[in-house]
Amino acid sequence: MIVTASLTYRTIDPIADAALVVANHHDACVASFGSDCSYEGAGRYLTWLGGKVEEFPEGCVLAMLGDACVGQMELEVPWGLNTGYVNLYYVMPRFRRLGFGRRMHRYAEQYFRNWEADRIELHVSPTNGPAMDFYLSLGYRRVGGDRGARLIKLAKTVGGNAE
Question: H-helix or E-strand containing 64?
Answer without folding.
Answer: strand 60-65
